[in-house]
Amino acid sequence: MSVAILIKFKSTDRAPLYISVATQGEYHGVWLSAAEKLGLKWVPLFEDGPVVDVSDLPTLLDEFRQLRDALAGSPKNDAILEHIDLILEEFSRLDLTEVSRIAIG
């Protein structure tokens, strides 16, 4: 199993965007423990399948950045850091006025 983000758009002509976050093992072994140490709100909930309101997206993106900063400096986390960068890049390309739903799980 894995954790992923599913973004749906207001336009029915536009296909949903699927962004892979982490494998279940990586989420439990790295993401979750770091998120709990940082006191993050959203990242610890990923496994429960939260729906994130578009208005909460800045907070979610900030959590990705905090997590990235916390994991930086250890070569064993290089692949995770690259993956977080890709997630942030995907979100930076979005026009949030076109987004209808963001689900994580």
Provide an overview of this structure.
- The protein has three helices and four strands.
- By secondary structure, it is of the alpha+beta class.
- It has one domain (2-104).
- It has a four-stranded antiparallel β-sheet.
- A hairpin with a 7-residue loop joins β1 (2-9) and β2 (17-23).
- The longest helix is centred in the first third of the chain and has 15 residues, at 24-38.
- It is globular, with a radius of gyration of 13 Å.
Q: Care to give the gist of this entry?
A:
The protein is an alpha+beta fold. The protein has three helices and four strands, in the order ββαβααβ.
Task: Describe the protein's topology.
Blueprint: E1 2-9, E2 17-23, H1 24-38, E3 51-52, H2 57-71, H3 78-92, E4 99-104
Helix pairs in contact: 1-2, 2-3
Number of helices: 3
Element-level helix/strand string: EEHEHHE
Biggest sheet: strands side by side, in what order?
2-1-4-3
User: Ends: how far apart?
Assistant: 10 Å
Strand content: 15-25%
Which regions contain 5 or more consecutive residues with pLDDT less than 50?
none
Q: In angstroms, what is the radius of gyration?
A: 13 Å
Structural class: alpha+beta
Helix content: 40-55%
How is the main sheet built? Answer: 4 strands, antiparallel
Multimer state = single chain
- Give the total of domains: 1
Q: Roughly what is the average pLDDT, rounded to an integer?
A: 94
Shape: globular
Topology, number of strands: 4
